[in-house]
Design a protein that fits this description.
The complex is a heterodimer of chains A (214) and B (79).
Chain A: H1 3-6, H2 13-24, H3 27-30, H4 45-67, H5 69-72, H6 76-105, H7 114-136, H8 141-157, H9 168-197
Chain B: H1 9-12, E1 21-24, E2 27-30, H2 31-49
Antiparallel strand pairs in B: 1-2
Classes of the chains: A mainly alpha (214), B alpha+beta (79).
């Protein structure tokens, strides 16, 4: 236990929470300034690129939610923010898929990192739901077409009674509240787990960079 | 020609016509999506083969829990 957590001797819940937090994620692990040699590769960039794109997605989404469809359909600034929202989503998914491929081929669930892998899977699936509802709430002919095509597929799964893709209001609320909160919270948990367990070494390489004898 | 005089992307690609689709058996996918998938594959391969800037810089081992080592023995010692 670190010196900082040793000072948390009080019985209050804040002191206990601080001690447990520092024990789980020591400061030098939470925000490291140096990394092992094998992290010096472009393939490790795409996780951070995904996070950066997600921040732009959330930021532009907040601006769009304040302006509303009457703004993003008619004003040039609304069109611009709408485009930023779309293209940051495109970059988000492209970076996330490349990140997924990289982690799959390096078997990144090794070394008790299964929860890290699974939170990534859940975040990916929630992102697909968020993107789908985003297409449904464009409030244009495209969203009408997508909703009318999707309703039969959704009804075939049996969830149509609870999740009505023709209901723009319901889809809007899913898009701007539940799904982003779900994606955001799981993404934060994913990053914390990466910091706790560390970046997975390549197969056959130890964390100090030495080759593991088989 | 200044940057502002360049045609927007929508002017380069005609977005008013019918969509172009690849039909291959039961698979039907727009060429736009095919291009995006191919771009992702190219980016993935480039990320594997291109050298990362500052690759030769000295780096240190990361501190991780002993049981987080993929090839650690049950007692935590490296195999």
């Amino acid at each position: 236990m670190s010196a900082a957590s040793d000072s948390a001797t009080g019985s209050s819940w804040t002191a206990r929470l601080r001690a447990r937090t520092l024990e789980a994620v020591p400061a030098e692990q939470a925000l490291p300034d140096r990394q092992p040699a094998y992290v010096s590769s472009w393939i490790y960039v795409f996780g951070v690129a995904t996070l950066a794109a997600l921040l732009v997605v959330i930021g532009t989404g907040l601006v769009l939610s304040m302006g509303g469809p009457g703004w993003w359909h008619v004003s040039s600034l609304g069109h611009f923010v709408n485009s930023l929202h779309l293209w940051s989503v495109e970059i988000f998914f492209i970076a996330m898929v490349v990140h997924l491929w990289g982690k799959f081929w390096m078997a990144a669930w090794r070394g008790h990192r299964a929860l890290t892998w699974m939170t990534g899977v859940v975040s990916f699936l929630a992102s697909i739901g968020a993107a789908f509802t985003g297409y449904l709430v464009q409030t244009n002919f495209d969203s009408q077409w997508i909703a009318s095509e999707a309703k039969d597929g959704i009804n075939a799964t049996g969830v149509g009674a609870f999740w009505n893709v023709l209901d723009v209001g319901q889809m809007m609320l899913w898009h701007v509240t539940l799904l982003p909160i779900g994606v955001g919270l799981v993404a934060v948990l994913h990053v914390v787990l990466v910091r706790v367990r560390g970046v997975v070494p390549p197969i056959g390489i130890a964390t100090d960079g030495s080759v593991i004898e088989s | 020609m200044t940057l502002l005089q360049l045609p927007p992307a929508a002017g380069v690609i005609d977005l008013n016509g019918d969509g172009a689709y690849l039909s291959w058996g039961v698979v039907q996918i727009s060429w736009a999506n095919v291009v995006v998938i191919l771009v992702m594959v190219v980016v993935f391969v480039l990320a594997l083969v291109l050298p990362f800037p500052g690759h030769a810089r000295k780096v240190v081992p990361q501190r991780v829990p002993q049981d987080a080592l993929p090839d650690a023995a049950p007692d935590g010692s490296p195999r």
